[in-house]
Amino acid sequence: MIKNILGSDFKYEDNKMYRLSKKHNKWTCCNDVKLDSRGYIRITINNKRYLLHRVIYKYFNEDWDITYSHSNQIDHIDINPSNNRIENLRIVNNSQNLKNRNKFKNCSSKFKGVSWHKQNNKWIAYILIDGKRKYLGSFTNEEEAYECYKKK
After folding, report:
1. Which residues contact 14 (CB under 8 A, 6 or more apart)?
2. Is the Cβ–Cβ distance between 111 and 147 less than 8 Å?
3. CA dihedral 7, 28, 42, 89 (to 10 degrees)
4. 122 and 83 in one domain?
5. The pairing of beta strand 42-45 with beta strand 26-29
6. Residue 65 lies in a domain
7. How far apart are CA 13 and CA 29, in angstroms?
8. Number of C-alpha atoms within 13 angstroms, CB side, residue 131?
9. 18 and 48 together in one domain
C-alpha cells in the first residue's frame, strides 16, 4: 500500500521502507543508507531531517504525531537502532526508553545495573527509576547482584 507522509510517497514491503523518487519515477530503499554516529538511519523529506523509524511508525499510525517529545518516543525493542521493522518499534515515554538500553561501555561489570564498589570490595546492584539511581544491595559476586537487578 502506498501512503503519502509529509508530502512524499512511501511503501513498506519485506520489512523495508521504500520512497518514490518523483525526479526519476522509481522506488528507492530508505534502509540502504549510511547510519549516523549512533546507528540510526536518517532521511530528508522537504529539506527536513527525520529518523527513519519515526517515519515507519507514522506510516502505520497515521494519526500519530511525528515530532519528537519526551512523552512521544519510538523505542527499538531489541535495542538495535538500525532494525526498523514495525514489529520492533513501540511508543514509550522517556523513562521507559532509558530503561531499554545497553549497559555503558565504561562499566566495571559485564552486567547492566551492576558495578564494582572499591571501598567495600563488593559488587553493588542499582536501578534507575524516574531518572534516579536506586541502590538494591551489595553482593560478593557479580552474578548475585545481577539476579537482584533482574528481579527488580
Report:
1. none
2. no
3. 90
4. no
5. unpaired
6. yes
7. 10
8. 3
9. yes
- What are the residue ranges in the chain where pLDDT is below 70? 98-108, 131
Residue 101 has a pLDDT of 64
Distance of CA 94 to the CA centre of its chain: 11
The model carries a pTM of 0.66
Per-residue confidence (pLDDT) for residue 23, from 0 to 100: 84
Q: Are 71 and 91 in contact (CB under 8 A)?
A: no
Report how far residue 45's alpha carbon sits from residue 77's, in angstroms, rounded to the nearest whole number.
Answer: 26
How far apart CA 67 and CA 50 sit, in angstroms, is 9
Contacts of residue 43, Cβ cutoff 8 Å, sequence gap at least 6: 19, 30, 33, 49, 50, 52, 55
- Tell me how crowded residue 14 is: count the other CB atoms within 10 A of its CB: 8
DSSP secondary structure, 58-122, as one string: HHH-TTS--S-BTTBEEEETTS-TT---GGGEEEE-HHHHHHSSPPPTT-SSSSTTEEEETTTTE
Domain that holds residue 17: 2-96
Looking at the fold, whether 25 and 84 belong to one and the same domain comes out as: yes
